[in-house]
From TrEMBL:
Protein name stated in the entry: Membrane lipoprotein TpN32
Keywords (A to Z) from UniProt: Lipoprotein, Membrane, Palmitate, Signal
Organism in which the protein naturally occurs: Corynebacterium provencense
Basic residues bias spans: 7-21
Signal peptide coordinates: 1-42
Gene3D superfamilies in UniProt: Periplasmic binding protein-like II (3.40.190.10)
Bias (Polar residues) ranges: 305-316
GO CC annotation: membrane
Source organism phylogeny: Bacteria, Bacillati, Actinomycetota, Actinomycetes, Mycobacteriales
Xref: InterPro entries: Lipoprotein_NlpA
Topology of this chain in the membrane: Lipid-anchor
Amino acid sequence: MSTPHFPLHRNRTHRTGHRHRGRVVTAALLTAGLLAGATACADDQNGGTDGHTVRVAASPGPYTELFRDGVAPILEDEGYTVEFQDFSELQQADIALQEGSADLNVDQHTAYMEAFNSDSGADLAALTKIPTVPAGLFSSRHTSVDQVADGQTVSIPDDTSNTSRAYRILVQAGWLTLKPGTDDTKITASDIAENPHNLKISTVDSSIIPRSLDDVDWAVIPGARSYAAGTDPKLQVLQEQLLPALILVAVTTSDKVDSDWAKAVVAAYNSDRFAEYMAGHNADNYWFVPEREGAAAGQSGQAGETTSTVASGDAA
């Protein structure tokens, strides 16, 4: 991931909320100099301009949809207004978080967040683990990893993080072995020690893979891509064993972690109500649902009040 050098491109802003109908705030783009002063502002720390508005930087994928349908209603019932700002790319959403024009994103895993922080000097922080759609090995020609044969074709994503995940899935399938000392989160083609079936592995734009599934023997598809493309879950022959760093997290900036609204988001994701929602929307076990965190598996706090119980966990 390279340090971003492009301006924000916000497609649209819309909001929900039943109890607090404050005015819509159009956030100004902040320069790096202004950011240093803005992070000390109590209004930004509290979320929105009144502490009752949660501004979600939404990027493409199933996770914002899950938040809209399963989490936002819980927050609204607690007195919060949820405002969505749609971005075409996750990197743009993270820039909005860092600049202070948005409060929350739910579309990235810890590894992505930490890479963004490292590359751009940002201070994004994880609030809690959230349900995640794992990557998987799919095939329209075969029904079991045991049907692998010499010279078969395999498509895997071409972006660095998902390429590494794809190689790890092929190792999980028993088709490849890696050189000793290989970092499981940074696997490349040069790390492959053995490919006994001489599989023809090609890297492809991940958005194309679901559409070209019939053209290859096997394909590794990232979870968000398979979900968005409506790929038949019955075609999945193997689901990845998620590394902790690849579990999705709710993300804000470090100065907002202890705000009331952030505590309410954590409590909502870990509440009985959200657990019931997930139970009714995971019939195909498409989602990996992390263990609920501590005593926060209860109710979120009212807007403007301090939540008495905050989740403790290892989401970071």
